[in-house]
Amino acid sequence: MDSELEPFLPLIPRADLSDPVGERKRLADLVAALPQPDVSGLEVNDGDASGVPVRIYRPPAARGAIVWMHGGGFCAGNLDSEHPFAARLAADSGAVVISVDYRLAPEHPFPAAHDDAYRVTTWAAGHVAEPGLLAVGGMSAGGGLAAGVALRARDEDGPRIGFQLLNQPVLDHRRETVSARSFTGTPRMDRENVGRAWEHYLGGGPVTPYAAPALAGDLSGLPPAYVAAAEHDPLRDEGIAYAARLLEAGVEAELHVWRGTFHGSHAILSAEVSQRQMAEMAAVLRSAFR
């Protein structure tokens, strides 16, 4: 573990996705303890995008827009829990960030969250983003939603997406990778919680590539992607595998496995590695919109 992150481990509660309602409160309390961003230079508005609540962050002289999906194992998180990250991403990247308050499992299993994310992306393509300057992205479960939206947009000749920003994405319900099998006691997320997240999200229904993008047989024709993975994260290897498959399919892809980190540790901004993670995601998005 990174030496600057290790002292925080006793202070970080393990996620418990066996209790989604309780986990929503635990996540809210955890985020409330984080340093809050300075939004004085941003125009921040709550709104509605084709029936889905959104929060839009618009920096001065913004270029490009990203539809951003929060993490929380498909069953926790909202606009407020994602506020610190979304605001920083907008301020540091210079892009409009459209944070999506998608419906949560298990009350609303797949395809509810996926449909919400796709509706907002379609709306953004016609109302916010300049032609060719639209990205999708997300953290954890949100990264999986973003990848699913990109697949559907390709398959249905939907909104033109120019980039995917996938931070520690949830992509594969099978949990057969080395990291998914091995990491049974890692901070925040471990094998058990990943399994619970998938149970809530899938609800016993059929599993399609739009739910679990790792199942997609063909990744050609997808937008360029940046995939970030944390070393001590059960999701690590599915992110690595997805980036490799994108490259094999002829899609431009960049992969960064952050040494000494764990799932969501980039929120600990006092650590130098976290500062680099946040700065890199913003820089990657700026570069995508040049």
From TrEMBL:
Domain of life of the native organism: Bacteria
Domain Alpha/beta hydrolase fold-3: 66-266
Any Pfam family matching the protein: Abhydrolase_3
Keyword Hydrolase (UniProt): yes
InterPro entries: AB_hydrolase_3 (IPR013094), AB_hydrolase_fold (IPR029058), GDXG_lipolytic_enzyme (IPR050300)
GO molecular function, one term: hydrolase activity
Keywords: Hydrolase
SUPFAM superfamilies per the UniProt record, alphabetical: alpha/beta-Hydrolases (SSF53474)
Protein name as annotated: Alpha/beta hydrolase
